[in-house]
Design brief:
- It is built from six helices and no strands.
- The protein has 198 residues and is an all-alpha fold.
- The protein has two domains: 33 residues; 117 residues.
Length: 198
Amino acid sequence: MRRIGYMLAVSALVLVSALAAVAQQESLGDYARAARKEKRPPAKMVYTNDNLPTTTTISVVGPPPAITEENPGAAEEKPAAKPQDEKAKAEQKEGKTSENKAPQNEQEWQDQMSAQKKKIVDLEHDLDLAQREYKLQVAQYYADAGTQLRDQKAWAEQEAKFRADFADKQKQIDEAKAGLQDMEEQQRQQEAQKSPLQ
């Protein structure tokens, strides 16, 4: 008798767990059907060479900048300033203010010259990175004969842009070096003026 009671209890437990599993499967099925009925978001536009717009620009990063009421054409007139451009402008402002106010003691001269040397090193580093990028692009371009045949004009434009960037960066380096030499000369002149008085 105990065996039969034990067997009935085990079979009832198996039956209850099977019913719970069936009930759970039905709820998952209902959920799947409800999810299918929900409105799906429209597919994103995929651009190919055939449907690429030629009259407007494509925003790759995100939405276009907000246009203010004061200057509605500002977003179209000025492209966004590059971080390097902002950095160069800040350095030029620092250079102008430091040129206007000549250092009075040795420590100020050293600080100003070390800042100019750091600027030169940064510019040379930027030029080196640009040259490395150019070498990688050249290697990629010449590694694939199909690319050479398809994109000759684009490559010529890209190469001209690289060369213009190199010339611009080299000009900035030369100007920074000339500025350093001017500082050294000014320091020598200032020391020469002070030394006879002592």
